[in-house]
Amino acid sequence: MPGYSFGLPAHKSCPRASGTICENCYAEKGRYTFENVRNALNVRFAWTVECMRTDEGMQQWIDAMVRCIGSTVSEYFRIHDSGDFFNARYARAWMEVCRLLPRKKFWAPTRSYQQPNGILPIFDPLLAVLREMAQLPNVCIRPSALDFGNAAPIVIGLHAGSTAGNDAEAFQCPAHLQDNECGDCRHCWENKTVSVNYQIH
What we know:
By secondary structure, the chain is of the alpha/beta class. The chain has six helices and seven strands; from the N terminus they run βαααβαβαβββαβ. The two termini are 16 Å apart.
């Protein structure tokens, strides 16, 4: 990627994980299995959860993230190379970070758009925050498909989605053709109206 990212442990921080893509999560393979990486993800998650318990802690988390991300040279930042928005308060904290760093471009893939199970649709505070966050000009919130081969999901109030498999209508991620790197491509951050299809990995 052309910049830094923030990761949390896969599944543990993904309360709305479901489907074959989550079952085969890339963030439980490769370097994510190294003990030092797993420890870092778990410590980061514990710190984040503890901070979200109080207004003071949440503000400390926001201040720390703004300071760290703001000091990076890159214009681009990925929210969650692993993990997801685990509750509305945490999503609101990220929204404030993005608002305070208007010169940075943020991209967040998510499955937290899913409605809780029930017969009738209900107001979902987490989805409401994600929709509010998606209105910021420097943010792209992409709903991720649940199963390999699905079309990229369309979620009102969020940007064009993403999938893995064979969605011919979507932009085809070129990373697998260039040493698994973004190269010059910035589609995930900048082209908010066109969905993206990743190679299965």
